[in-house]
Task: inverse folding
């Protein structure tokens, strides 16, 4: 029985090489050691249609074995004298080599024989074993063999042993190359888990960054929870006094004005009951007092009149009960007339001269601060625009509105000092026209009557501000303080000067 890793026993032939040395099966791959276990790679050959471990083309002698192809036989031929080379096994004219002992002279000279052992002929790649020859085996031009003949019966053993050694060596080399290839692949792989841990951030937040603004304001922003006989709600607010005075929207705490409980939740988790100090439904501003609070961090108030469109701002509050939420955006517009408060849909009483921002504002943000990038409160988040939805739940679409701090500050100061805020009025009722705001009714003894305005007059400018509808005029009047003087322009190009009045806001 012939094993796959042993030389096959063949009949002895002169001047031949054992057919098992470098034998190929069907020209597809070299026969070598026994097949590997299922699922394991064969280190001596490639995949389908690929060269094996030795890189030999299919059907040719494996590189390095130095054995001729299996198709080589003992019928050796030599070329005609004008061929210039000795050819064995090749086509074309030539002489048949005589068998030893036949008595015929050898064409290469006395004692000459053609020897092909297991040792390859040293030389450049163009030598006798170069190229994917199939069935043909060539000696270099002018080749003269000087190797003495082998002892009879020993050639096969020597060749077989050489082939076995080379096959074992090829197996070891192939296996070593395979393992080395895998090791190289594994060792060259890069993993994030092997990288050193990133250094901890120890520096302060960059000046003017959202991070710095959040760090500065969050301790002063609170969540406000209101429970009444009819339900519960929540909103936001910010601390303006270390003893627990908090600014918020009127519509956040309005339900508790007629009976209910207010609870304040601070950023550090501390809670406190609160009561209403005062409120102004017309400007949607209220101030509450938290009980038993001292040393609370307070906000810094800024100037909303310095705001520019495109300027960065940050909104902080408790949207959908998510306390301490920080969002950022820009000032999208200024002096935007907006109706806010619980009766916003039915009256001009709550029209605001609002700051518009794209910083995300959602239900629960009401009463929280709008902050510039210096960490100063420039507005009170009060309303959002939200398209109608199937479930009726409002949400941010990037259009939010805040009460300017310059307007809110006066109202807050009046509430804290007297508990009775005043509303700025012109003393007219107006309606929209194509030209501007038309006066439909004059309040007797009011600022408009004193300035000489009459019913039917159409106001087109209020100071430097163009008036295109009635809400714009209401918002412009609310942005001023009682006692301010203003020049009013009418549609007939007349101008009048008026001194604005202030009236107590009904509680």
Result:
């Amino acid at each position: 029985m012939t094993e796959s890793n042993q030389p096959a026993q063949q009949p002895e032939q002169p001047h031949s090489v054992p057919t098992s040395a470098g034998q190929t099966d069907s020209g597809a791959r070299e026969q070598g050691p026994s097949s590997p276990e299922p699922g394991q790679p064969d280190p001596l050959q490639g995949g389908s249609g690929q060269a094996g471990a030795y890189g030999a083309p299919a059907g040719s002698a494996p590189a390095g074995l130095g054995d001729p192809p299996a198709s080589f036989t003992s019928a050796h031929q030599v070329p005609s004298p004008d061929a210039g080379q000795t050819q064995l096994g090749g086509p074309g004219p030539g002489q048949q080599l005589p068998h030893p002992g036949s008595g015929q002279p050898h064409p290469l000279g006395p004692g000459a024989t053609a020897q092909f052992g297991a040792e390859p002929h040293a030389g450049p790649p163009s030598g006798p074993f170069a190229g994917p020859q199939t069935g043909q085996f060539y000696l270099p031009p002018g080749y003269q063999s000087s190797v003495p003949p082998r002892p009879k019966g020993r050639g096969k053993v020597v060749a077989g042993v050489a082939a076995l050694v080379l096959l074992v060596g090829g197996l070891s080399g192939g296996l070593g190359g395979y393992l080395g290839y895998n090791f190289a692949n594994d060792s060259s792989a890069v993993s994030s888990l092997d990288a050193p841990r990133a250094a901890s951030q120890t520096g302060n937040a960059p000046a003017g960054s959202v991070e710095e603004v959040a760090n500065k304001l969050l301790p002063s922003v609170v969540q406000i929870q209101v429970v009444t006989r009819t339900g519960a709600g929540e909103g936001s607010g910010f601390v303006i006094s270390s003893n627990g005075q908090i600014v918020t929207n009127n519509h956040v705490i309005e339900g508790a004005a007629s009976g209910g409980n207010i609870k304040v939740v601070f950023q550090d988790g501390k809670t406190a009951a609160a009561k209403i100090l005062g409120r102004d439904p017309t400007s949607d501003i209220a101030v509450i007092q938290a009980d038993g609070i001292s040393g609370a961090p307070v906000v810094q108030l800024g100037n909303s009149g310095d705001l520019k469109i495109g300027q960065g701002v940050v909104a902080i509050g408790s949207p959908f009960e998510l306390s301490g939420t920080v969002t950022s955006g820009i000032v999208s517009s200024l002096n935007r007339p907006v109706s806010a408060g619980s009766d916003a849909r039915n009256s001009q009483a709550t029209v605001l001269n609002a700051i518009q921002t794209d910083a995300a504002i959602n239900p629960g943000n009401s009463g929280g601060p709008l902050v510039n990038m210096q960490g100063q409160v420039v507005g009170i988040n009060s309303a959002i625009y939200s398209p109608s939805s199937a479930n009726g739940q409002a949400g941010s679409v990037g259009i939010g509105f805040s009460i300017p701090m310059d307007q809110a500050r006066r109202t807050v100061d009046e509430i804290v000092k007297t508990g009775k805020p005043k509303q700025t009025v012109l003393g007219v009722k107006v309606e929209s026209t194509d030209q501007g705001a038309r006066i439909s009714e004059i309040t007797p003894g009011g600022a408009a009557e004193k300035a000489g305005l009459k019913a039917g007059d159409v106001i087109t400018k209020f100071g430097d501000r163009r008036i295109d509808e009635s809400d714009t005029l209401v918002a412009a009047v609310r942005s001023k303080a009682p006692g301010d003087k203003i020049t009013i322009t009418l549609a007939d190009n007349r101008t009048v000067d008026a001194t604005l009045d202030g009236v107590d806001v009904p509680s």
Remarks:
- The longest helix spans residues 155-188.
- The longest strand covers residues 325-339.
